[in-house]
Amino acid sequence: MDQLNVDVEADEESSVILRLGYEDKVDGYFYVEKGNNVSFRITGNSLIYEAGSNDTADSSEVDSDRFSFCASREEGNTYTLTFRNPPENGKAKSTVFLEVIYPVDGSMFMHIERK
Question: Which domain holds residue 89?
Fold first, then answer.
């Protein structure tokens, strides 16, 4: 299990990459700690999941969600979890808390910025 904070600048994306074995199961959740709602999607070789609710005016932006999926040969062994901070949020950065539970032989990667 890994827990991390993901900073998403205004009108930008931040991605977390998972390398998994076939049939590995992944569970997780996220919530926005600071800032505005974000969009969230999981992709393998194609779109696997996109967060949202039909109860909101803009169903592509959420403040929290849970997800679960199983790696498959069709989707490959690399999965990308992408957060997007939409341009209508102005210049506000969003910080998202993310927890991902995956097998110990899997790997998680995230871009880090050097200052």
Answer: 2-106
